Amino acid sequence: MQIAETLNQGLRREYSLVIPAAALAARVDARLAEVSKQVRMPGFRPGKVPPNLVRKMHGAALRGEALQEAINEGVQQLLADRQLRPATQPQVDLAGDDDGEGDVGLKVALEILPTVEDIRTDDLALERLVVAADDAALDAAVARLAASQQRSEPAPEGHAAVDGDTVVIDFEGRVDGELFDGGAGTDMRVTLGQGQLIPGFEAQLTGVTIGEERTISVSFPEDYGVAYLKGRPAEFKVTVKGIEAPVAQDIDDAFAQSLGIDTLDALKDILKDQLSAEFGQLTRTHLKRKLLDTLAERHDFEVPESMVEAEFAQIWQQLEQEASQDADPATARASIETERGDYRRIAERRVRLGLLLSEIGTRNGITVSQAEMNRLIGQEAARYPGEQAKVVKFFQENAMAAAQLRAPLYEDKVVDFLLAQATLTERSVSRAELEAAIEAEEDGPAGHVHGPDCDHDHDHHGHDHHGHDHGAAEEAAKPKRKAKAKAEEPTAEAVTEAPVDEPAPAKKPRAKAAKPASEAAAPAEAAAESAPAKPKRAKKAGSDAE
Fold first, then answer.
1. What is the pLDDT of residues 130-147, one digit of tens each?
2. Residue of 158, 225, 213 lying closest to 471 (CA atoms)
3. DSSP per residue over 244-276, as a string?
4. Is the pTM here over 0.85, yes or no?
5. How big is the CA angle at 525 (ends 13 and 304), to the nearest 5 degrees?
6. Phi, psi of 98 (to 5 degrees)
7. Torsion over CA of 406, 409, 410 and 415, rounded to 10 degrees?
8. What is the rounded distance in angstroms from the CA atom of residue 270 to the CA atom of residue 408?
9. Would you list the DSSP string of 485-497?
10. Strands 104-111 and 12-19
């Protein structure tokens, strides 16, 4: 096979391959001899069909099969001989029409993985922010738990509502004297002081009593979700139907027992363990981001455009999905469109970090053992009750899916390796300070944005609607939605254990030959196959599907 390089630009490579007609004809003859022994045809005994008749009936299909095999072997030879590490599957096209007789020319285009020459990890210095699960934090956790269990009871007659009280109201809203769509509701429960409603609405409910009617004047926020109401003044006629006042929750053994725990001390021990784990995760999240930020600042190498495009497409798909669920989808789409360049840079950063961590792991012999892989598969299978065997088989038979499952653990092991080499200084902070530091990184130059695989929660200031339709009276002036793309995290596709030792197979050429009619002569499937979809997850009762 003749191979010639036609393009060498950055990470892009293109080659011309020529499959000699004689070599292809030899493949066809060999396949013809094999098939002739198995083909059945009326008037001939099995295995006695003349080869020329088999060629006449199935020659085109046999040549197509032989051509596909030659193409796959040619591409594998190209990758091996030139020691190419493809970033994505090579694109293979016929250079011209296959006339069925002459040499066959191919064009092979691919991007290769970069070679990272200078990896600088020997002098890492990072600050570790730690939060102690001390008595103050523990008392605050107990208080929060008690508040979440707080009950309320009807307020006495004549009670004037204050913050913390839940007011039950009927309402009817008008703009310019006209009732607007969604502006009326009944039996809406509003807990004063929680900011559930349009700014200024709850404050004007303070002091109401049962049976009172009151007119409330407010203006809709400029970023309200309904376009024709944005910024417009409105009046709501409100009738107070009930008031419930919170009942103080005693924090004692009886409170612990209401939660199924014997004593308050035992409850505190449980909460202390949970706080320690939670604070530890926050500390690691911050430290990992600082590490990745440092690595990103120190390393700037070219990354494969195809990998960046694939990562950007995934981010953009998530953004568009979120925008479609927005109260004003058109405005939301227009907003993210203005930030397209930012998300493109996020995708590039994720790919670069992924390739860098992969290279660090390879050079330092970091691996995911089979035992660890079995544990991951078992954990994943446990999420599909009744289908565990199918899930296990799926990951055993699909290398791509297994690699995606392995990637987060491999990434964590590389991160742990780097943190073990780093000089760490420790500083005690409050939980609020640590969360503020994490939030600052999300909004800062590092460009962190949450992604579908994000491993921590983000407060979107959602509200409990209590099953009622609150209409336009409900607060829609929420903080600007943050796109979910987790920029500080490398892409899973790039962080793989020794990802480039196995060359990617070639795609089928665009000119395809028909398959032979005989089952015995059916050609083998092409080497390049799409990874099957993940098994459908069975829903668990009482759980939120991811």
1. 999 988 889 999 998 988
2. 225
3. EEEPPPP-SHHHHHHTT-S-HHHHHHHHHHHHH
4. no
5. 25
6. -85, 110
7. 160
8. 29
9. --TTSPPTTTS-S
10. antiparallel
